[in-house]
Design brief:
single chain; six-stranded antiparallel β-sheet; about 20% strand
Amino acid sequence: MRKVALVLAFGLALAQPTHTVAPGDTLFSLARRYGTTVEELMRLNGLASFLLQPGQVLRLPEKGRVHVVAPGDTLYSIARRYGTTVEELMRLNGLASAELKVGQRLLLPGGATALPQAQAESGPSPPPGGDTPPEDYDPESPLLRIVLRYLGVPYKYGANSPLALDCSAFVAQVYAELGVALPRTSREQYQLLSPVEEPRPGDLVFFSFGGKEVDHVGVYLGRKVFAHASSYGSRVVIESLEAPFYQKAYRGARRVMASPAPPPGPSAGR
């Protein structure tokens, strides 16, 4: 009986879908690609941080071949990602037009396989800073390119999925793509990082809207603007740090110098 049980367990292990991490992969991009959530991938694989290593094998949820439409998806981009055609996607899903809705589930062709993201687009790079002048930003910087890909993703308190993020999850995901692990909540990020007098591109800027404790965070981009997952705008946006609303709640900037110690496990938090 034990031998039979071992054989069955081995067969189930072989049947479990997996993904081998390629350069440029992140938990966010993989969750979006496979129609799941960052939390589910972390739970399945016992991960304590957002960082991934090329060659790492991740277990995936057992699902049919579907793609969940995320903000910014088009039939063309989905067809390109899975090596199929717009016409085939429309035929499989009975679509009369190319219009898609966030959260919509699309059937994929049987042999469709997600292509890895280009390493040049989102591969790990050193954290920003260094010799960059304090108020300048490079439109080609890895950090700015990553931030721009998240613009428009909906805000939801405690969320960390392709369909929604909260402020600290947004910051942690941006830096995970740069190869730096940050804690999950804005309060933990504030406590861990070193304060600076004047922010420069890549620094984290912190706010307190509910009292004395820090409860919000964003990424400073230079020229007095920052990107954040805004509960008021209900999405990831870029706004002026000099706006009176943010100046009143501003609690200072902190610098990400290098990869900190592994953060605690995932937990809901702004």
